[in-house]
Amino acid sequence: MKRFAVDIATRQFSKKGEDICGDAVKVSHTPDSTIIVMSDGLGSGVKANVLFFDNHPARKEAWTREVWVYDYRTNIHHTLKKKPLRFGDLRNFVACYQPLNRFKRAETWHETENPEGRWRKFAYEQIIARDKTSLDIFWLKDKSLADLDNLPEPDDLAGEIIENLEAGLNSFRAVSAALQ
Fold first, then answer.
1. CATH C-level class of 3-146
2. Angstrom distance (rounded) from CA 174 to CA 180
3. Are 65 and 123 in contact (CB under 8 A)?
4. Is there a smaller number of Cβ atoms within 10 Å at the N or the C end of the chain?
5. What are the boundaries of each domain within the chain?
6. What is the pLDDT of residue 107?
7. In the chain, which ranges are E strands?
8. Residue 170: how many CB atoms within 10 A of its CB?
9. Which long-range contacts (CB under 8 A, 24 or more apart) does 167-171 make?
10. Is residue 73 a contact partner of residue 50, using CB atoms and an 8 Å limit?
């Protein structure tokens, strides 16, 4: 059975003084799988989900019974220079994923016993019931949003907003000029 992965639900939050380097797509082939990694670039704040699928022939009834999600977006921060992603950062994911026997998988998340667990299973029906069947799934609280005592200074926030708006306007100007 061939497997492939697709990166979805990418978010980008640039921090002051750090740039995203542009879109990147990498495709790796092995005898058993195809892995597609798509990123909106390198740098601070690139957030992405990666999904793994088994190939099956098409049929009317969905093959999928459950979707496993590992939330490595919430409260995890890597940067290209100061704190780059290393293989060791993904050891917990690999242990949870159980690549050699997926039937041994067990959730680390539990509503009352472990609400900070990053590995969670969703039934097919839960996914289909989501708005537009969105796979942008998260359940952990973003501590940077909840910790009101550690918010950036208002002038820093205002500067970032202005910077983002100006970048957006410049993009629209480039599109408008290309259309003329």
1. alpha beta
2. 10
3. yes
4. C
5. 3-146, 148-180
6. 96
7. 3-12, 24-29, 33-39, 46-54, 66-70, 119-123
8. 10
9. none
10. no
Kindly report the length of the chain.
Answer: 180
Helix, strand, coil proportions of the chain in percent (round to 5)?
30, 25, 45
Q: Which two tokens stand for residue 61?
A: 């009834």
Contacts of 163 (CB under 8 A, 6+ apart): 14, 16
* Residue 119 CB neighbour total at 10 angstroms: 20
Q: What is the pLDDT of residue 110?
A: 96
Amino acid present at 153: E
Residue 123 Cα distances to 22, 65, 126, 127, angstroms: 35, 6, 5, 7
Can you give the pLDDT of all 180 residues of the chain as single tens digits? 555 444 444 444 454 554 444 445 555 555 555 455 545 444 444 455 566 666 677 789 888 888 888 888 788 877 667 777 888 888 898 899 888 888 899 999 999 999 999 999 999 899 889 887 777 788 998 877 766 666 677 887 788 788 778 878 888 888 888 888
Strand order in the sheet with 46-54: 24-29, 33-39, 3-12, 46-54
